[in-house]
Design goal:
Length: 207
């Protein structure tokens, strides 16, 4: 009798584990599909924005005529050709934003401004490819205000509380931030930093 009960319990546990596995796969598929759809939508939105006449004033700053910081406002499209990486960049670094895109840190410069533009992304989604980035790699940030090209100058690993990487630099730059180590299970204790210098701003003329 005991053996029969044990076998039944084992079968029940196996069935439950199977259902949980299916549930996890479905959940992951839904998240992946939602993110992929949003990326397509963001790229189409950027293409539409680039057909319009740029507004005056700095987008996302008081005095400009563009949105002043909603989490879903589109900044542009970040590309790293050698890594085959492409991701929309939105204003904000909250969880909702980082689930669907790379987030621009609101207290840092926008790409078309002078200063240090900082963006953050999850190490297990959009910023997974930067595990293989190298000094000298080129990046492009396409925005409504033009296409801005950068070359990687420095890679670093810092403690999570080190905010000096957000400080204005002596050059116009772009800083990428993600958690580290890349393969760490749970909340990673460090931050992986990619610092790049602008090499070719290409501002579009008004349509």
């Amino acid at each position: 009798m005991t053996t029969v009960l044990v076998r039944r319990a084992a079968r029940w546990i196996e069935g439950l584990a199977f259902l949980l596995g299916i549930g996890c796969l479905v959940w992951a598929s839904v998240i992946w599909a939602r993110t992929a759809i949003y990326q397509v939508h963001a790229k189409n939105q950027l293409d539409h924005m680039r057909t319009l006449t740029p507004v005056s004033g700095a987008a996302g700053r008081p005095g400009g005529n563009e949105p002043t910081g909603p989490a879903d406002s589109l900044i542009g499209l970040l590309e790293i050709p050698r890594l085959g990486m492409s991701a929309a960049v939105l204003e904000g670094d909250d969880d909702r934003t980082l689930r669907v895109a790379v987030g621009h840190l609101p207290d840092t410069a926008l790409p078309w401004e002078k200063g240090n533009t900082a963006v953050a992304g999850h190490r297990d989604t959009f910023f997974r490819p930067i595990e293989d980035i190298r000094v000298g790699d080129e990046m492009r940030l396409a925005t409504r205000h033009g296409d801005f090209e950068y070359r990687v100058r420095r890679l670093a690993v810092v403690d999570s509380e080190n905010v000096w990487v957000l400080n204005p630099s002596e050059y116009v730059g772009l800083t990428l931030i993600t958690c580290y180590p890349f393969r760490y299970v749970g909340a990673a204790p460090k931050r992986y930093i990619v610092q790049a210098e602008r090499i070719a701003p290409h501002n579009r003329s008004p349509s």
